[in-house]
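Q: Here's a chain of 305 amino acids. Please give me its 3D structure as tokens.
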Amino acid sequence: MLLVGTGAVGGYFAGRIAQVGARVSALCRSDYDIVKEKGITVKSVAGDFNFKPAEVIKSIDEYGHEPDYIIVATKVLPEINIHALIGPKVYPQTSIVLLQNGIDIEEPVAAAFPGNEIISAIAFVSVSRPGSGLIIHRDYGRLIIGTYPSGASDRTARLAEIFQLAGVRCDIDRDIITARWRKLMWNAPFNPLSVLCGGADTREMMESEQVVSIAVNTMKEIMALAALSGHPVNDSSINTIIRDTRNMAPTKTSMLQDYESKRPLEVEAILGNTVRIARRHNVPTPHLDTLYALLEAADRKNRKA
């Protein structure tokens, strides 16, 4: 299989399955020299290891195989053209695995590759990449995957088996879109708030009643949109998310890590797409609108810094 995007999430999960014999090659540009020479060092609460891809390539055209799976683990950014990035190596038997954040992200890829299976994958993991060729895994580490737009194919089941063999909990959800809405309920409030609160980790956010109130109201707006979209989320989800966030080890969100490293933020995938869904349904979402406007401005300024 081919990994596209050797950031913290992609590098960690691909590295885990490589440890149990999966042949994983990597399209790697920014860290190419280090990864090709030394691989990726993963310091993990589940045990340290080194991930040395079977091949390390700079360009998709260098890959000389017909992959069964292409794991796309890049950020979801307007400037990243997935079709151009992976198109030359998408064959009839290739399943495209979107190991990415956001809502409503699969449809453009499905439209670009109508003959290929799309497997949507959602990560629950606390990882960071503090330097080239280094990943730190602090907490969690499970996946939910499903065939897009619904169901679970044999190839989806096989991929889940590979992750399970590597000791990664990988659950199959036949309604993967609803699973994405549930993940969005955490991502949409806490990722932006961590940036807008001046660099707050999860514990610092949870210590503020005002911040928790904003997060809860944002989640309520997301629940309403999920229901209108035909993917209702259980009412208990908000209490569960707040409880789990209070209990997790203090963590900098992935968006805060990107912001501090002057990397582009996934504003559109997490907030922009959500706000556009609200507009299609003519539903007011004042908290989401506010977070979207403020984060877009912060991202624009940060990119220029």
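Q: Can you summarize the key feature?
A: The first strand starts at residue 2 and ends at 4.
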